[in-house]
Amino acid sequence: MSDEKNNQETATPERRKPRRPSQMAQEETKTSPAAETPAENNGEKRKPRRPSREGQSSEPNGEGEERKPRRPSRAASSTDAPAEGGERKPRRSSTSSRAGSRKKKKDQMPIGMAVFAGIIAFALYLNFAKSGELAMYWVVGICFGFILRRASFCFTASMRDPYLTGSTSVTRAVLIAFAITSIGFTAIKYGYFRMGLPIPGMSYVVPISVATGVGAFIFGIGMVIAGGCASGTLMRVGEGFHMQVLSLLFFVIGSLWGAHDFGFWKRTFMISGKKVFLPDYFGWFGGIAVNLLIIVVLYIAAEKWENRKNAA
Question: Is this structure's pTM higher than 0.85?
């Protein structure tokens, strides 16, 4: 027995086959105490992992250790409670803060109804006490002013905005208005022409000369400085702009001065020009066709100008 025992001790042990690294890692993770207890380094706790963007479960990393709560994103609901320490106060958005800071608008419906009733009453007074023509002028003027106010329609803006802001919306609106009025006035004039009656509005067909261009240039400078032409000034006076009240005052003074000296300007400068009435050169249909063609070309040019400014 002793000999057999000595032979077993002195016998060369069998060589074990080397294990694969993956198997060794699996066995180490099974037998390692770190898998059962949280890893510690010099008595410090292991830092929790940062949650992924998709969001992971908030289970603790180990016994006695909790993961830090994930910071809520801006899109998250403001009523979400944090992981520890009570409830979080709801976050106040910028839109709600602006809405809360705004004062509640006063109801102006009673004032509007009272003004509308006054307009109707004054129109009835003009119709029965004066003449129906004055009442019609009153109603048309009120409607025209209301449309100008709501549409912010101004000839000055149609010429000024393309250079200052690049916008041509008002310019195109003016061109559309020109096209509609050209068709309407041509139909009226042609009707009088077919009946053999004097064509209305021919007194406004005035000679064109250098004085026309100089006067238009001076008027353009004045209306840009004043912030509006005749229609824009009247519209802004109705809105309560004090600058336009001053402009309206000098507008009236300049108009009276120009009417007083109009005979001199007409004899000296205007009468030397030539009158241009398109139906005289192209016929009634050709005249309106040429007029509308010019308006279409200007409309396309204005639209391309705005697209170019926006692209730049």
Answer: no
